[in-house]
């Protein structure tokens, strides 16, 4: 397998511990540095990671023992940090979204091409057994030809649990940009890229309040609904909300000419996949058919390392992340103008993950 890809984390916020725990058990990657604007936060994370040193962000970018930057900053900083890392000669794996808009994201892709470096981007949840099993079932024709899908993410808002939720309500946040990448990336895996969108969006509440009573403004749409036309011809109905309580809505369902597929939460790596057969009118739980087993956040970084060693495209590719961002931006544009918007980008559907594959090798 060769030497592991050395990784430095920039951004020691809430999600960083989950990534660090996963990277520690993957032999194809090795975490060496942690950086944050608050060096105390970086030190707190590094304290539980033997051999990992806390450093300021600029110092991390200059470190010879960092091949790739794991960018876990807030969304508005994603593009800035990615561009700085690429300028320093590092590969980048970023949290979603790739940037707050396609203009910034295009700059990141151009900088990567100019530097001869690779950018990959979350979510990597789609590489687990849940989504990959659903994808394998579709590929086998278990529900015939897919004609439509639904996707629902409904919650009253992240301020109910997050200690510092303000960034969820700033540009680059909101339910579409925060949670939409999980659902849209899953839908691209299942039904292919999107070519047209239409929709509506609203902001029912102009302010939100933190757990400790601080009121702050809402700068983005917090309820978004739309219809996506995939290049395959399938139509998806999408609803992303920070304004409603969930009921009995499915996370994702795909409807075909011979049955229906119920897909688990794309914000998780595993979960049960159920197939409804039109001929028998019965639901059946499918066994795991594909995907990384026991996966967790960080498997996309290992997949990036594998791609760099083999000269292949990472499954959590920047092109896929750009297309997902373009779909979200186009949906909000359609909502603002009351029109149907053509999505100008496209992407290759990532390679499927074989069942029980080793993320460092396949």
State the main characteristics.
362 residues; alpha/beta; Rossmann fold; Dihydrodipicolinate Reductase, domain 2; 9-stranded mixed sheet; 6-stranded parallel sheet; 17 strands; 30% helix
Give a written overview of the molecule.
The protein has 362 residues and is α/β, with parallel strands linked by helices. It folds into two domains: 5-121, NAD(P)-binding Rossmann-like Domain (Rossmann fold), CATH 3.40.50; 126-290 and 326-342, Dihydrodipicolinate Reductase, domain 2 (2-Layer Sandwich), CATH 3.30.360. It has nine helices and 17 strands. It has helices at 16-23, 39-46, 57-62, 78-87, 102-115, 129-139, 174-191, 299-310, 318-337; strands at 5-10, 29-35, 53-55, 68-71, 91-94, 119-121, 146-154, 194-202, 207-209, 215-217, 223-230, 235-241, 252-256, 259-263, 274-277, 282-285, 341-342. The strands form three sheets. Strands 16-15-14-13-7-12-11-8-17 form a nine-stranded mixed β-sheet. A six-stranded parallel β-sheet has the order 3-2-1-4-5-6, with helices on both faces. Strand 2 (29-35), helix 2 and strand 3 (53-55) form a beta-alpha-beta unit. Helix 4 runs parallel beside helix 5 (102-115), helix 5 packs antiparallel against helix 9 (318-337) and helix 7 (174-191) packs across helix 9 (318-337). The protein is globular. The chain starts with a strand and ends in a 20-residue tail after the last strand. The mean pLDDT is 97.
């Amino acid at each position: 397998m060769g030497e592991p890809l050395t990784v430095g984390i920039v951004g020691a916020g809430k999600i960083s511990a989950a990534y660090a725990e996963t990277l520690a058990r993957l032999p194809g990657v090795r975490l060496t540095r942690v950086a944050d604007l608050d060096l105390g936060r970086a030190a707190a994370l590094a304290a539980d990671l033997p051999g990992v040193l806390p450093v300021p962000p600029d110092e991390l970018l200059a470190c010879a023992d960092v091949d790739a930057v794991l960018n876990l900053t807030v969304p508005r900083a994603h593009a800035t940090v990615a561009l700085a890392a690429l300028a320093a000669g590092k590969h980048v794996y970023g949290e979603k979204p790739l940037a707050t808009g396609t203009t910034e994201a295009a700059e990141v892709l151009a900088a990567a091409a100019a530097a001869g470096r690779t950018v990959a981007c979350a979510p990597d949840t789609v590489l687990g057994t849940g989504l990959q099993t659903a994808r394998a079932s579709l590929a086998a024709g278990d529900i015939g030809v897919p004609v439509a899908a639904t996707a629902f993410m409904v919650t009253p808002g992240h301020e109910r649990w997050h200690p510092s939720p303000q960034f969820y309500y700033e540009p680059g946040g909101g339910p579409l940009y925060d949670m939409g990448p999980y659902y849209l990336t899953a839908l691209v895996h299942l039904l292919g890229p999107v070519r047209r969108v239409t929709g509506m969006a609203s902001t029912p509440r102009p302010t939100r309040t933190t757990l400790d009573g601080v009121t702050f403004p809402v700068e983005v749409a917090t309820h978004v609904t739309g219809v996506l036309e995939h290049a395959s011809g399938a139509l998806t109905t999408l609803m992303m909300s920070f304004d409603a309580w969930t009921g009995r809505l499915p996370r994702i369902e795909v409807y075909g000419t011979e049955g229906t597929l119920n897909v688990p939460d794309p914000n998780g790596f595993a979960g049960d996949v159920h197939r409804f057969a039109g001929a028998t009118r019965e639901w059946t739980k499918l066994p795991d058919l594909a995907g990384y087993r026991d996966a967790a956040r960080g498997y996309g970084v290992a997949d990036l390392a594998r791609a760099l060693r083999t000269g292949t495209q990472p499954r959590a590719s920047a092109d896929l992340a750009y297309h997902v961002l373009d779909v979200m931006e186009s949906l909000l544009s359609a909502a603002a103008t009351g029109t149907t918007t053509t999505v100008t980008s496209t992407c290759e559907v990532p390679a499927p993950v074989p069942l029980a594959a080793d993320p460092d090798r396949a």
